[in-house]
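Model it.
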Amino acid sequence: MIVAGNWKMNKTPSEAAAFVKELIPRVKGAKSEVVVAAPFVALPGVAEAARGTNIKVAAQNMHYEAKGAYTGEVSADMLKDAGADYVIIGHSERRQYFGETDETVNRKVQAATAAGLIPIVCVGESLAQREQGITPEVVRRQVKIALLGVSAETLLSSGLVIAYEPIWAIGTGKTATNEQANEVCHTIRMLLAELYGAEAAAKVSIQYGGSVTAANAKELFAMPDINGGLVGGASLKAADFEVIANA
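Modeled.
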């Protein structure tokens, strides 16, 4: 079970470090893996604040090249050196606002695993795609391309996580029903079984994201194919994230 808080473009470096210090005693008994995804500039301070605790640190994006003339970008090695354990790849906001594609997601996944970062690979459909009844096809395509060239050995040794986030439920207050969320997570797991075998598929953590709150987390996480959550707004409040991390 992995519960990751995606802070998006929130919290200054000093605010982020202070928040982690507040969070430490609240989640120290959590049975799930607790992860906070901070903005780039806050990563070193967050990593230092979390050192020696059960809180892991994630970046929210990365470039697929190791170095070069890519002004404003950050490489996997830079993130590792800054203290990141995980990296979110392919979040719908990156796809929608910054031109992320299935192909760039794949390149980033390969770069992240090669550098020893654990990818949290985001997939999900739009409202129009759900209404058209093509959610399984959309999500299967995204997962297939994201994992192109990723061996079963790398899939498992890297600890790669897949996060199903229906785009229509991100930041809208709408949440997929427990059954809707689990159905798509099950579709992802069945695809992993096709690609890598049932044993490998059973070991991959599949998160649900999309307006996860303190009120709905326990029921969502109880579903058989959901192994935690990628949490947005609720992860910015220590009391709410405490409840979710302990759900």
